[in-house]
Amino acid sequence: MRRVGTEPEAAAPPTLPPDEIIRRFSQKEDEFLAARPNYGFRKTIRIDEFGENGKPAGQFLMVTETTRAANGQVINKVVQKPQSTLHYFNLETEDVRELDRIPAFPLVSSQLAKYDLKYIGQEQVDEIDCYIFKVKPKALDRTHAYLDGLVWVDTKYLEVVKTYGRWVNELGDVRSATLPFTLFETYRENVDGKYWFPNYERSDDTLHLKDVSVPVRLVIKWTEFKVLPAALPTAAPVAPPTPVKPLS
Questions:
Q1: What confidence tier does 150 reach under pLDDT thresholds 50, 70, 90?
Q2: I need a surface site. Which of 23, 55, 125, 137 has the fewest CB within 10 A?
Q3: Torsion over CA of 139, 96, 228 and 196, rounded to 10 degrees?
Q4: Rounded distance, CA 79 to CA 89, Å?
């Protein structure tokens, strides 16, 4: 699919006013954000190194699962121990988990005031007709990651189906201290016919070391979405019996 990296003039205005499109898709984002904690899923993180011939030379792979534990808590557990054949750098589980700082739903209604959004045209994403909006943060702080890039919105149901860009805060690009990735392309999947959740994310970059520059690629996949079982209700404590006073 062709990426849009500039600001072309829109060939024709959208059917709805851009502000109305933004209002409606942000409301959908609110719904998706509220629904996501009710779902478990499997998450596969893969990082590839490439040699001078462009072929894969090393790989890091980790698989986790979000599920509900017996005590009712939602947990993320490693289901496939991290495996690595990387040659140029070492990765720990904590290095990869720093990527969780990137929000899954950046354009919820409570965040819209922090962005400038500009309608720039239309394009198909996996045969879905989409409006394209350029997204730019108005102001930054140190505690939140903000999208600086593009968002694709389904023209029929007004739901976000793809984002592309970098994540920034007041200190610069939001990324792992070990990994170089800054530009992320994220696709979404329709779950249960209701919600569009991220299911595929990719980033290509170059790791610059002292004597060599190594092309690297990150791919994250979310699969096997399923509604988590309800937490068992906590039994109320049983009050001790009231002592009976003896008859006088």
A1: very high
A2: 55
A3: 50
A4: 23
